[in-house]
Amino acid sequence: MAAEAPDPKTFASWEDAFQYPIAAVRGMEKQLRNDIDSNREKLRSLVGASYRDLLHTAESILEMDSQMHSVESYLGNMGVRCNSRLMDKKAANLRSWDSGIRSRGTATISMGFLRREMQRSRRDG
């Protein structure tokens, strides 16, 4: 029998431990219990960190959901305001206004003309 305490991690089975004196077996037991406690703490730390990561991910998902609802609402409102018929009317008014300016051959626009065009644009759009 060896005087020096063996490493219990090298044993093939539990029966190998009992080939040593009782003092050596108790020393191996103490070493194994310390290893178990150390591994338990490592596992608890790892699980705690993973749980915190999971909570952070869940909070991020909820925030993204809220932002997506805001974006959908914003785009819906934009779609209501920018319907194709309204855009066609505004484009036609712009072409009419542009051709009116070009037909006059002048770069200056009277205030009366601008007021009439703005009123017509409000009325049509």
Q: Low-confidence parts lasting 5 or more residues at pLDDT below 50?
A: none
Overall mean confidence score, pLDDT: 82
Shape: rod-shaped
Count, helices? 3
- The percentage of residues in β strands lies in under 5%
Helix/strand order: HHH
- The N- to C-terminal Cα distance equals 102 Å
| Helix/strand class | mainly alpha
Percent helix: over 70%
Number of DSSP-assigned strands: 0
How big is the Rg? 41 Å
Sheet with the most strands?
Answer: none
List key phrases describing it.
125 residues, mainly alpha, 0% strand
Please give a structural write-up.
This protein is mostly helical and 125 residues long. Helices cover 76% and strands 0% of the residues. The chain contains three helices and no strands. α2 (84-104) runs antiparallel to α3. The protein is rod-shaped and about 115 Å long. The N and C termini lie far apart (102 Å). 0% of the residues are buried. The mean pLDDT is 82.
